[in-house]
From TrEMBL:
Organism of derivation: Hevea brasiliensis
Family the entry assigns: Belongs to the RNR ribonuclease family. DIS3L2 subfamily.
Pfam families in UniProt: OB_Dis3, RNB
Annotated EC: 3.1.13.-
Protein localization: Cytoplasm; Cytoplasm, P-body
Native organism taxonomy: Eukaryota, Viridiplantae, Streptophyta, Embryophyta, Tracheophyta
Needed cofactors: Mg(2+); Mn(2+)
The protein's role, per its UniProt record: 3'-5'-exoribonuclease that specifically recognizes RNAs polyuridylated at their 3' end and mediates their degradation. Component of an exosome-independent RNA degradation pathway that mediates degradation of cytoplasmic mRNAs that have been deadenylated and subsequently uridylated at their 3'.
Residues that, per the record, bind Mg(2+): 457, 466
Main location: cytoplasm
Superkingdom to which the source organism belongs: Eukaryota
Leader sequence segment: none
Residues annotated as domain RNB: 445-798
Annotated protein name in UniProt: DIS3-like exonuclease 2
């Protein structure tokens, strides 16, 4: 069979004798993961019982049975068969030439393929420049595309378009079916006791399903059913820099499918589609996949369970044959076993038994059923036109699905996160621990070691990459300094360390572990701004007046020595006056060690001044139209074995806002400098405007509930603040409002300025309301920041070269030697465009290895992928922690608010866990459902008669206990006592490091949740009691189950 696995990092020696990879010893390659959900009702295709075809066997066997005997068209209701299909389920993919021609003529469009997690038969394709996604409905139309593929689609004619959900007027089901599980990513960090680093990331990022930009790369196409080598090789390894004046693409680029030469015609095609959508706003465009041009690397990282019991069942039928022919008991070369992915966006897959690792085959031959409880890792090998399922190959066994460590390893594998040790070649690029700042650096850098500089971080942080300082100037203004670790000094371009850092792209924070982007010797020692140590830095100073206006700024390389490391808590106490200049001498060991010629009053004064300035900057930013969508976040308390035993909701501390404002300002300043100095090769970050359709739906939601909302430019944030004040006594509803406010928001992404030089109006950052933005302040944990540092260094170098050139040619005017042409507050465009300026900028770009446009676009796309993957790891680990907690508690009672309501399901929000869930109540035995459309009211009641079989389709009605936990009033006190005893056991667990457990009110024992009774009447935003419990583990994907909590004598 043709293999699609392209993982050069999986060395041959890492594989055991039979091909099974040891999870703990593998450095997984990076890949994009697009966990972006569009929610509709949960309809899954019928289980085909493992039926599939294979070209390699005349009569393939599924679960031990030859497929020819069990294949039946009636089992495939969603497949289209006709006399001309010749047994093929899917249409052939278009050829490279046909695809190219169709894209050029606007007959087809390039798009990102996303699958609805609640209904795999529905997928959505995002076309760049089109606000509404195209629906791809049914597996025939999806044509073997999987989550994350870049495809070419042909849009259907207008009469075939479907009705837009919620298009009958104001949305009734306010869960806005397509838009669930969208979390504001205003901070890419978490609580200090979990991650060690929770610095606010000073970039407001929103996960939105219709927003991810497609990297504008060359189109790849592979005519065979197996992915082409070039597709995976390009994406599965980091982009290599190619430096020099020529900015030539790599040789491999010649194999790329060419760009459309008629860019204006493509835009006209997009414009025409947009015009049709605007003309028919109640219609959603539909289409079909005609080619897969870039295969998602998710194909190489499938996690799931083998359906072993099904295979054993079919094997029993051949035991009689086994007695007559002793060889028949062995596994046939044409037998398949079904693999069910844990991610519902992926289809079930068939695994050739002979391809399984020997350790699994031996256990199967022994009849070991426990294999079905173990998570396995696999990759998609092939998916031909005749097969309803893709073929997969198992390469990893992680362990029992009910245990934390196998789950964590599976999460890392699924997101292609490195968790191996750093390569020796990378470590050899670093100096020893005894390294000191070289004397040469002291002569070419500004020496700031006598300035009062300090860091503010979580108490457990070990990678300190930013520090602050402040001075009052004689003219009454203040000079604020941000000092960032100069990581680019150690990570030189094109070295082994640089390549590995680019491969990892970002540090990953999960539970109490950190998977660093850089070796600890650098990230926690040589590069970290540890107190009392001389360190290299990139510094930015601003002179600010009393109203926060910038009078001047300076950027350059420096040497600093931090005087102390402050925690957020300490800084907050200084701001609040709990620690003052008068009381600091009495605090003793509570304060950290202070280094240098400074006293604590110096530090306290600096913190207070910085706090006042940050408040001014923050208010000024919001007055200028910035937006911040804050929401409560959950964090977990762990016992000494690393197992979560409790959870809390946390809010952002005021001291973190202090740091945030100056990091935002530093990132903005760096973006302005590099985009002006190198307009074709600046790595920037953009945040597009919200999806207008969804913004209007949010406005309708607020209007319906009597909340005034103004989303016009400059008023959105103030409007939300007024709603906050109005809902100050209903924090749950305000959390819901903020959740819905985030849904129209699109995703912030990295981009190369040269790629979008003709669309400079699209460079802006919507949430920050600024025209330029980048990431500069976290080079110890983000690779794009290192690239930005190199570009800044080139701008500084070019400025020096230009000034020197003018001196040599005697063109320097009086006082000009102090002018900052390229890095000052005013950019001298004439100087940059002069022959001396162009020569200086080019020479500096070569020296500091500033990448060309094409290569930088690849770095941006790769960084976007890795950033999404790291976020998915965090989300998956949070879900795992919730699951472990509920597994331990058995169940948890909580109030929930109804977000969405309809005749089939309701969407609820559980504030205590900060999650949304659905309860499906259609076709439940013993339950009647009455949906009153006119008033958006639901009535649930018990019925006296029992229904066993569904009328419209085969199968049984679901049991009532799947929807509701029904308790007799006679047993209510006993159940409450049971919950209370278990909760007390949980509370008896020792508190965590920070003693936070004492602040937590247990959601079960100390909040009296009363059950409801039937008949139950539910309206939008009603509060209902629910029981949460852990689902899956050994018998399927982990999830948080939820049921109504009901009391009835008829239970």
């Amino acid at each position: 069979m043709c293999s699609m696995s392209r993982q050069p990092e999986l060395d041959a020696h890492a594989l055991c004798e039979h091909g099974l990879t040891s999870v703990s010893n593998v450095a997984f390659n990076s890949m994009p993961t697009m966990h972006i959900n569009e929610e509709v009702e949960h309809i899954l295709p019928s289980d085909l019982g493992g039926q599939t075809f294979s070209k390699s066997c005349a009569e393939p066997i599924a679960g031990g049975v030859p497929l020819g005997r069990c294949m039946n068209k009636d089992l495939l209701p969603f497949y289209h068969f006709d006399d001309n299909s010749r047994g093929k389920i899917f249409a052939p993919h278009w050829s490279m030439e046909a695809t190219n021609e169709a894209v050029e003529k606007d007959d087809a469009f390039k798009a990102l393929f996303r699958v609805n997690a609640h209904n795999r038969l529905e997928a959505y394709c995002k076309i760049e420049g089109v606000l509404t996604d195209v629906l791809i409905s049914g597996i025939a139309a999806q044509n073997r595309a999987v989550e994350g593929d870049i495809v070419v689609i042909k849009v259907d004619p207008l009469p075939l378009w479907t009705k837009m959900k919620g298009s009958n007027g104001p949305p009734v089901n306010v869960s806005l079916a397509e838009d669930c599980n969208l979390v504001v990513e205003a901070s890419e960090t978490a609580d200090g006791n979990c991650k060690g680093k929770s610095k606010v990331d000073v970039d407001y990022e929103y996960a939105e399903p219709e927003s991810f930009s497609i990297p504008q790369k060359g189109i790849h196409y592979d005519d065979s059913s197996c992915a082409g080598e070039g597709i995976h090789q390009e994406l599965n390894v980091p982009v290599d820099y190619n430096f020099g004046n020529g900015y030539h693409p790599s040789a491999s680029d010649s194999s790329h499918f060419r760009y459309s030469s008629g860019q204006s015609e493509v835009m006209n095609g997009v414009d025409r589609l947009c015009a049709m959508i605007n003309s028919y706003p109640l219609k959603r465009p539909t289409g079909r996949v005609v080619a897969i041009i870039e295969r998602s690397l998710r194909r190489d990282a499938i996690v799931g369970f083998l359906n072993v019991k099904q295979w054993f069942y079919y094997r029993e039928g051949f035991k009689k044959d086994a007695k007559e022919n002793k060889n028949s008991s062995s596994i046939s070369a044409c037998e398949y076993i079904q693999l069910t992915p844990t991610d519902p966006k992926f289809p079930k897959m068939m695994v050739l038994m002979q391809s399984l690792p020997d350790s699994i085959k031996k256990r199967l031959e022994r009849g070991d059923p426990t294999i079905e409880m173990e998570l396995v890792g696999a990759h998609i090998d092939n998916w031909d036109e005749e097969s309803p399922f893709p073929y997969a190959r198992v390469s990893h066994i992680f362990g029992r699905g009910s245990e934390m460590e196998p789950q964590i390893n599976a999460i890392l594998f699924e997101n292609a996160i490195y968790f191996s040790e750093f390569y020796s070649e990378s470590l050899s690029c670093l100096p020893s621990k005894a390294w000191e700042v070289p004397a040469e650096e002291l002569t070419i850098r500004r020496d700031l070691r006598n300035l009062c500089i300090f860091t503010i971080d979580p108490s457990t942080a070990t990678d300190l990459d930013d520090a602050l300082s402040v001075e009052r100037l004689p003219n009454g203004s203040v000079r604020v300094g941000v000092h960032i670790a100069d990581v680019s000094y150690f990570v030189l371009p094109d070295t082994a360390l640089d390549k590995e850092a680019q491969s990892r792209s970002t540090s990953v924070y999960m539970l109490r572990r950190k998977l660093p982007m850089l070796p600890p010797l650098l990230s926690e020692n040589l590069g970290s701004l540890n107190p009392g140590e001389d360190r290299l830095a990139f510094s930015i100073f601003w002179d600010l007046n009393s109203v926060g206006e910038i009078l001047d700024h300076w950027i350059g390389r420096t040497v600093i020595r931090s005087c102390c490391k402050l925690s957020y808590e300490l800084a907050l106490d200084m701001v609040d006056g709990m620690i003052s200049e008068e009381t600091c001498d009495t605090l003793g060991n509570r304060l950290p060690l202070l280094h240098g010629p400074f006293e604590w009053p110096d530090v306290i004064r600096s913190v207070k001044i910085l706090h006042e300035i940050s408040k001014t900057l923050r208010q000024k930013r919001f007055n200028d139209g910035a937006l911040q969508l804050e929401s409560s976040k959950i964090f977990f308390l762990f016992d000494e074995y690393g197992i979560p035993y409790d959870s809390m909701l946390s809010e952002q501390e005021e001291s973190s806002f202090l740091v945030e404002e100056f990091m935002l300002l530093a990132n903005r300043t760096a973006a302005e400098v590099i985009s002006r100095a190198f307009p074709d090769s600046a790595l920037l970050r953009r945040h597009p405007e919200p999806n207008m359709r969804k913004l209007r739906e949010f406005e309708a939601f607020c209007c319906k509930h009597g909340l005034e909302l103004d989303t016009s430019s400059g008023h959105f944030h103030q409007s939300l603040e007024h709603i906050r004040e109005k809902l100050k006594d209903d924090s749950v509803l305000f959390d819901i409002v903020m959740s819905y406010a985030s849904r129209p928001m699109q995703l912030a992404t990295y981009f190369c300025s040269g790629v979008m030089k003709d669309n400079i109006n699209d460079w802006g950052h919507y949430a920050l309301a600024i025209p330029f933005y980048t990431h500069f302040t976290s080079p110890l944990r983000r690779y794009p920041d290192i690239v930005v540092h190199r570009t800044l260094a080139a701008a500084i170098e070019a400025e020096e070269l230009y000034t020197r050139s003018r001196k040599i040619s005697h063109k320097v005017r009086l006082g000009e030697e102090l002018t900052r042409f390229f890095t000052g507050i005013y950019f001298d465009k004439d100087a940059a465009e002069s022959s001396e300026g162009r020569e200086a900028l080019s020479a500096a770009a070569i020296k500091h290895r500033v990448p060309c446009t094409e290569l930088l676009a690849g770095v941006a796309a790769y960084s976007n992928d890795r950033k999404l993957a790291s976020r998915h790891v965090k989300d998956a680990c949070d879900k795992l922690c919730m699951w472990v907690l509920l597994k331990k508690k058995e169940f948890l009672l909580s109030d929930a608010r109804v977000l969405g309501l309809g005749p089939r399901f309701m969407t609820i929000y559980i504030q205590k866990l900060a999650i949304e869930r659905r309860i499906y109540y259609e076709e439940v035995e013993g339950l009647t459902v009455e949906w009153l459309e006119a008033t958006s009211t639901l009535v649930l009641n018990l019925c006296a008669y029992k229904r066993t079989f569904k009328r419209a389709s085969p199968g049984n009605y679901r049991a009532l206990n799947e929807v509701a936990w029904v308790i007799s009033p006679c047993n209510l006190n006993a159940e409450a006592g049971r919950v209370g005893r278990f909760a007390n056991e949980c509370n008896a667990t020792p508190s965590g490091k920070n003693g936070l457990a004492s602040q937590h009110v247990d959601p079960v024992s100390e909040s009296e949740i009363e059950p409801v009774v039937f008949p139950l009447t539910v309206r939008l935003l009603s509060t209902i009691p629910v029981a949460l419990h852990a689902v899956g583990g050994d018998d399927g994907p982990i999830d948080i189950g939820v049921r109504l909590y009901v009391s009835s004598y008829f239970s």
